[in-house]
Amino acid sequence: MTKLILSTGNIVSGGPSIIRKPGAFRSNLELTNSLRSNFLAAQEDYAAELAHSNGAANGNGNGSANGADLDIETGGRPPASVWTAQKDGALYVPAIDGDDHGLQEEPAQYDITAKLFFLPGAPVSQRSQHAKEALEHVLRELRAPAVDLLIVSFPGMSFEGDCEWEADRINSAQGNDEDEIATWPAIQELHRAGFAKRLGLAEFGSEKLSRFLQRVQVRPAVNQINIKNCCNVPPPLAKLAKEQGIDLLVHSDCTDILPKGTLRELLGQGLGGAGLLADPETGAGGLQGDLAPQWVVKYTAVVRDRGVIENKGYFAGATLVDE
Amino acid sequence: MSRPSRAAPTRTYTRSRVLCRPLVQSKLRTIAALGTALDWPDAKKQAHLVRSWGIKQLLEIWNKAKGKERDAMLWGDEVEYLVVTYTKDDPKILLSLRQADILEALASDKALSKDGSCSPTTQPPPVFHPEFGRFMLEATPGKPWGIEFKELLEVEPNMKLRRIIAKDHMLPNEHPITLTTFPRLGSPGVFTDPYYPASGPKLRSQFVPDEIANPHIRFPTLAANIRSRRGRKVQVNVPVFRDEQTPWPWRDPTVNHDLHQWPEDDDVRNGAAPDNFIHMDAMAFGMGSCCLQITFQAKNLIEGRQMYDQLSPLGPIMLALTAATPIYKGFLADTDVRWNQIGNAVDDRTPEEMGEKPLVNDRWRIPKSRYASNSTYISEDPRLRPEYLDPDLVIDESIKQQLLDGGMDDRLATHFAHLFIRDPIVIFSEDLKELDLNKTDHFENIQSTNWQHMRFKPPPADNSIGWRVEFRPMEIQITDFENAAFAVFMVLVTRVILSYNLNFYIPIKRVDENMETAHARDAVLARKFYFRRNLFPTARTARSSASGSSTPTGAGAASRPPTPTGPVEDEYRLMTVNEIINGTAYAKATTPPTQDDDDNDEEDDFFPGLIPLVESYLDSVNVDVATRCELATYLDLIRKRASGELWTAAKWIRHFVAAHPAYKRDSVVGEEVTKDLVAAVVKVGECEGAGRQFRTLCGVEVPGLEGLLGGFSGMGGRKASSRKLSAQAGAESANIVLSIQSYPLSSLF
């Protein structure tokens, strides 16, 4: 099994991928577009570097980690070895260089939020590990000791329907209470260890939330809901949040933010793909196996008293299992 | 869309002079005694001294403050009011000239100004200021706003509170209204209360009395010295709107060609009042306009300069979008905004400077009034291509050299050397005894009588406030809901610009052209504006800029690789306000296709739109549901104004006049129409203050209100609380700065 860590880098000044498409609520376009453009940028950059060093030293001195060949089968793209990196048992797509990270000012100046998406299909038993790993990537990228808010998004949840009441009602039966509650201690642990100052949930309606609150130790301080055009918070949820001192925040993310098919396309041989995966027909051109997205974490660092977003990006974890 | 109601917040109105220092600091400066204001020939002799001392003071601040860092994002809004007398039964609506009495009443309301602490969560009482027009008032929040999103929602209730407090300190028949101009200012007959005859020694206006201006010596001196320097009265000529029954050519019937009281009465006999133009001849016609201005504090010098440049191209767009000025002196104009009228009303250029006579005594030709659109960019941003600058910018080379010698960089020195081509207009002889480098009075004298559409404000002499940028083009809106919406929108736009490091640069001359375009009747829908096609870097060429420490906050811009340089002309195109604000997709959906759009390459013309960008920003920060919904309402108002789904105030006023039975389709806005129009505005204000839905309760009585405001009703549950606060305010409210300010013009108008 190969573990993959995908990353977008800082997307905040990255151009079109941040532009919200009219009417595109609950979109994962930001993630997919910015992954794609980061892959492309990395391929170009590292290829240019490689060409440069080849010209200078006439040799392949970049210490290729996964041994892929400079091959015509990569469809004109630079080989994976050039722009990805194998490190600590994971393949980083693209490679993350050591310098050039962190925030401009000291971390206390920022409001740092991380939102962790547990993806459908990923084993519940792995969530503890995934949470730790995801947060580590964020903290390393931002060079921050902790995030101010860690929001957890569970699969299979939504807040949709005919505005307020119906959304709340439908929500009650969504997700999996037992899995969610079983996951929470790992999140609490991150909080206790000082890596996340406050915790939050996403898409919990009034009934799910009250069931959840009864069974957890560290209570969420935030519940993020998607309200689309409809600005009425379901009254039971508003009441519960008020009583429990939980902030209701807005978001517009998908819960299934990185479907398997989308990820395959992003890494595959097709148009706009990164060319990392082998061609499913011929088996040629790269990594083989069953690609399964596990988690995604979105992070945002906002300068506290200036309201300026300085850094925003995503990491995604996936596994590639030999078939 | 229904809006969540909110419990009335309990607030106390207290203040602390230190902690609650307003952002617009210069307005609070006071002078202990009235000085001796020099008349023009004497002032002119001292102009050079004032300039040279002003430059020394500027360099002093520059050296003190250039390294100032990490100031918080604070901002302030300024709302200006006309004070009108109106009762249902009185056939006349007049401008009240009791500004001084009203300010006095506010100031002597002892309970309002008691000291107290100023915690971040309590807003001290609003601050009221005098204005040039004696029929005007200005109000600002008691302390600057921050960038907490919840705080953005306090703006509208605070604006309402200001109006209520102001009203509480007026006579029962007086009302503060937010129309940009009084429709019959300068019309024949009585339009002020009390009445004064026109043609006084200071203004020498045919149409308005000297008493129309604030009597403090600064204001009449300003008006008189502008006239005197110019060598004739100011000429404010606005094209008249030609309606079905308008005689053509049209000669302003209110102009008297046979006056012989002052030498300036010759002006109209020498062609000052051309056919088809409404003719006005005094500073009050311009500086008597109300506007909505926003001042932002920047993190540091670099960010301030970046904001100044990036907001500059937005000026004309926001002017067109807030258009509210279709009537002058009792006639419908063919323009919708106030801007050029103010420019002409304070244009002190001599015939030589204007290019009407060969340069003999004056130093240079000057293409624009001292009140005009920005003339240059000031940032050292590598994205600023030399082609964007005006090669013919007039500057004072010796002043620039002094600034360079004092350590200022070329670009900023150029900016100030441009401002300093002007003479100081009002000079007090007492201030010329010695140069005080702990003050900025001489610098401010020049700086604050350069009224460009943006103003770059250095910190005050004590360096207690950061570098600031003032956004000045917007017209005041009739309701506080609208004023709050535009203020908050601009705040959000600045955050988007800084976060995404957007690039709005176009050649500054195109911004000038856009400013002219914004004047056209219904420019918001009927005209197109030059605007940059791509606000983002053209390609993500270097990963280092995309992953890691690259920051959009000013300094980071320097590490960005230079944009590939194609022809500058390819970087921008003509766009509608709808495209600029809402993006091409929305614009396409809300406007019928026209012939000339057909051959455009759609892909090439894609533009994201400012509102979608603001929404992207809001999607990326933590905002609570209630706040986001209120903000969405503001964005919705602006979206619909830009698309034409709702009308500008100018359009509503035109509609109101056209539909009035007393209007004869001859461009004349008579007393009866004016009364009903102003009454409608007063009514809307009352409805808003009382917390009623504009539409359901005022709609019946106010024709066309649906067009202006649609289903919007202002901030839901807040209205009741404003009401409650007003009672409280009446008992213990406002913080008044009545003292005459030393540089009151610094942020007025």
TrEMBL record, chain A:
Transmembrane segments: none annotated. Residues 57-79 are annotated as: Disordered. InterPro entries: Gclm (IPR032963), NAD(P)_OxRdtase_dom_sf (IPR036812), NADP_OxRdtase_dom (IPR023210). SUPFAM superfamilies: NAD(P)-linked oxidoreductase. The keyword Oxidoreductase applies. GO terms for molecular function: enzyme regulator activity; glutamate-cysteine ligase catalytic subunit binding; oxidoreductase activity. GO terms for biological process: glutathione biosynthetic process. Pathway: Sulfur metabolism; glutathione biosynthesis; glutathione from L-cysteine and L-glutamate: step 1/2. Residues 107-252 form the NADP-dependent oxidoreductase domain. The keyword Oxidoreductase applies. GO terms for cellular component: glutamate-cysteine ligase complex. It comes from the Eukaryota. Keywords: Glutathione biosynthesis, Oxidoreductase. Belongs to the aldo/keto reductase family. Glutamate--cysteine ligase light chain subfamily. Heterodimer of a catalytic heavy chain and a regulatory light chain. This is GCS light chain.
Automatic annotation (TrEMBL), chain B:
InterPro entries: GCS (IPR004308), Gln_synth/guanido_kin_cat_dom (IPR014746). The keyword Ligase applies. Residues 595-605 have a biased composition (Acidic residues). GO terms for cellular component: glutamate-cysteine ligase complex. Gene3D superfamilies: 1.10.8.960, 3.30.590.50. It comes from the Eukaryota. It holds the Pfam family GCS. Residues 541-569, 586-605 are annotated as: Disordered. Pathway: Sulfur metabolism; glutathione biosynthesis; glutathione from L-cysteine and L-glutamate: step 1/2. The keyword ATP-binding applies. Keywords: ATP-binding, Glutathione biosynthesis, Ligase, Nucleotide-binding. Its EC number is 6.3.2.2. It catalyses: L-cysteine + L-glutamate + ATP = gamma-L-glutamyl-L-cysteine + ADP + phosphate + H(+). Belongs to the glutamate--cysteine ligase type 3 family. This is Glutamate--cysteine ligase.
